[in-house]
Structure formats: C-alpha cells, structure tokens
DNA sequence: TTGCAAAACATGTATATACAAATTATAATC
DNA sequence: GATTATAATTTGTATATACATGTTTTGCAA
C-alpha cells in the first residue's frame, strides 16, 4: 500500500463491494476522481485499468466506467488464490492433513523447474478437508535452495503466506493446466472419493518476479466439488 | 491495427514467436525500443504491458523485459478463443454438426442475459468432431435483437467470425465457469462418449464492449479430451 | 588482483499537456 | 413539438519531463 494508484484501486474496490456504486451505473468521471484523490488523470487511469483487468468495471468511451455485476462471478479460483484464502472466503470449516513433508530429488520436476538436476526439492503432500470430507489432494514441489526450512506447522496453515510474508519471496505468475484423469491409489488413500473414478487435476508452475521457476503443484479435486470461475477479456487479434 | 502501441505489441509478439528474442533473454530496453519505433517511452510501455499481461514477458526492474518460455504453455483455451481458432491452431481435422438452429423464448436464459422476458433468442446446438470423434457439444443462446439473421452455414463455419467481422459487434469480456457434471441424454445422443459417464461443462456469459450481455454458451467436453491452459498473474492483495 | 564506490543504465511512479473520438446535454430551427 | 446542429462531457492516445529504485558496469584505490 505505497503506490498511489494501487491505493486508489483498493479504495475503489472497497467502495464497489460496499455497494457505493451500483452495478450498471458508472463511477465518477476520471476528472472527478482526480479532484477527489488529488492526483493526476494518468494515475487515476492506472487505477481504473486495474479495476478493468479484474472485472470490476468496463470502460466505455464517452460514457464512463460502468460498474459490472460481480455477484454472479462467485469466487475466482483464477489468479493463484491459495486454498486458505479460498476456504476463508467461502466461510466454510476446513482442515489440512499433512501426509508427507520430505526432501527429494526428482529429476523430472527439476527439469521442469529449470534447476540443477541433483538439487533438493521439498515434497509436500496434503489433503484438504471441507465440511468433513477430504476432497482435495495437493502435491507440492518447492526448490529447497529458495525455501530452506519447512515445517509441518507451516504446511498445515498456509504455505503461500509463509513464502510471501515470512520469506519475502515475490510470487508473480503461473502457468496452469486443468485436465481430468483417472484416480490413482494415492487418491483412493487420501481422499473420500465417494464412488468417483476420476479427478480434476490442476497442474501449476509457479514463478517468482525475477522469472525463476520455484514451485510445481498438482492439485487433485473430486469432480463434484470442483469449480473454476474465470473472468476473461478478449484480446483482439 | 491503428493504435501505435497495439501495432508495436503485435510486431513484438511476432518477433518473439519467430525466435528473434530467445526465452530467458531480454527485449531491447525501453529506451532502445523508443528509438527503434520512433515513439515515446509511455507508448512503448503500453505495448510492453500488453506483452506482460499475455504472458510473453516479465518486466524486472533494473534488468529489463525478460522473454518467457511460451512453449510449455501449449494452447490457451483461456481468453475466449473460439472452437474454430482453436482447432486451426491445433492443426487437426475438425467438423461441426448443427443439430438445432431455432428461435426460442427461454425465461431463465433471458434473465441471465438481462433482456426482456419474452424476447427471442437464437438457440444453436452443435457437436464438434475432431479426428473422427464427436467430443464437444456446444449449446449457444444469442439475443436475436442483436443477431438478426443466422443461418446453418454460419453456425457450421464460425459464429464468432460472423458476429465480430460481419455484424461488427464488439465482443469484449466473459465470465466463465468450469465444472464436471453427469452426462445427459442429449450428451449421449450427440457425443461419442466412449464409456464416460461425466462431462466437463464450461458455461460462459459473453458481453459486448458496452456491457450488454448478449450470449450464453454451454460447452460440454468429453473428459479425456478436455484441457484448459491458463496464464495467471498474482494480484497482490 | 580484489573490493568498493561511483557512474551508467533500466524500469517504476507521478505529473502535465494536447488532441482525437464517442456520448450526452443544450440550443436553435423548422 | 420534433429534428438538427452545436457545445460540453468523458474516455483514448501520444508525447514530455522529473525523479525514484533496482541492476550492471566501470573505474579507482588498497
């Protein structure tokens, strides 16, 4: 919260969520916002661009910044939201079981993360219990040269919080793949499959701000409890 | 192709795809690009912002614009790409079967699209055949007041091309949901399910640039042929 | 040669101006 | 009153400048 335009963005997000600006209506004009926040138009425009990218508004030339109806959007799994953030937003009771927390040498994963073939990786296997059912199985591989120490306690609470806030690593972007695959013996052991013979698999390669790949995650979901919601802008060809 | 920064963006995308700039290396500095394209730094920065948003580069302060490795990204289903664009990019033989093309009045869909309760909607049901197998079932609802005429020929080739290029409608953004559901009798009729009893369902609400909702699409995929690839930047909270 | 400080370089933020283009409000005319 | 022309409003693009902040290179000194 130090950049002016990010601050303005957050303030406007809060106002929209409070219902200060009704969906379908418009925000104050850029000129008005300049006066209100005592700043230049370009700074306001940067804040509005952020709002637009995250699906809060649609800018219409000559009219203004139309507020979009985010109610139907439900929760966005998109954008690298962690399990903890997610379940907190859903307001459901949740629990994490740590099944494995070891240092391994997996050549294939190393190759994918562009790190030394023989270097150590943290392997973390966790199941996620929501409403009394274990419905998500997370397998994480993290570069040990970047995350030196890892405890069961950290794995149980929030890995992302530890990495970002304690270690100060700058998680920046990820490429993500969603497919459906048959269940494995591991799925059967750690999940309450409830008769399902397939799971939704989300594989993510997570990168830091300096473009070093540092984490590979495989998140396996029971199909009936899986939902992915996305807001996408069409990039003109 | 009229805006300077969009033109520069496309030129740089082409150069990256040609391998002009190797993954892991950097683009020329903003200062250099200014000279090269004979423009101001802000204009260059707008082009670079587009590259960053679409996963081509990562800007690192003090270093430069690092080119990302998009090879592993495979095809992005994200960002509202149509079936035709998709299969063309995959280079596979494909075929579209039109099963229904009618004008209907569906109150529920009307409500979702914020249009008059009794207004007419185009209902289009199509199956998609790739490599000899019918693996996708698309059900589209379009507002007839915006898309007056629709023919079987258009539905067979490309709806998006017709809407954008022929009608000149400005498709701007969509909210999209991915879930897994049991197969319906319709799925069994129009798809080669190959024993599968569940399908991946993508529901999309598509909006125009002036924020009018005009299309609802339900795309039902056979699980083993489904893949969703995404590039996501972490929005700092 | 090594180590450190300074300079040069690269991107990030904030501000200002000018004009273009689309929409809306106003005024004038029939 | 309805239509049309004009003006005001609002967002989009392009350019320019100043300074901040992080990285790399250079050069001086021990």
From TrEMBL, chains A, B:
GO terms for molecular function: DNA binding; DNA-binding transcription factor activity. GO terms for biological process: negative regulation of DNA-templated transcription. Coiled coil: none annotated. Residues 2-70 form the HTH gntR-type domain. Keywords: DNA-binding, Repressor, Transcription, Transcription regulation. It holds the Pfam family UTRA. The keyword Transcription regulation applies. It comes from the Bacteria. PANTHER family: HTH-TYPE TRANSCRIPTIONAL REGULATOR TRER, MANNOSYL-D-GLYCERATE TRANSPORT/METABOLISM SYSTEM REPRESSOR MNGR-RELATED. This is Trehalose operon repressor. It comes from Halobacillus aidingensis. The lineage of its organism: Bacteria, Bacillati, Bacillota, Bacilli, Bacillales.
